[in-house]
Amino acid sequence: MPRKKKSPPLEEALSELESLVETLEQGDLSLDESLKSFERGVELTRTCQKALEAAEQKVRLLTGDSNDAELEPFQRDE
Fold this sequence. Notes:
- This protein is an all-alpha fold.
- It has helices at 10-26, 31-63.
- The chain has a domain at 9-46.
- The radius of gyration is 17 Å and the shape is elongated.
């Protein structure tokens, strides 16, 4: 059974995802290359989502918030 490739850190995944989007938006790839890039983009998106979910869970644990607590919208100071 093949070993699964280790996921890149969040920052690297985001950087690669941004690069893939830019490349796809240029429209210079063949259909096959575009599909492979799209597939990689989906993998990277899932990696980012998992990393963000893990970070959110860690924050909840550190702040003592329960899982059923209602999330509050982020307020930016402008």
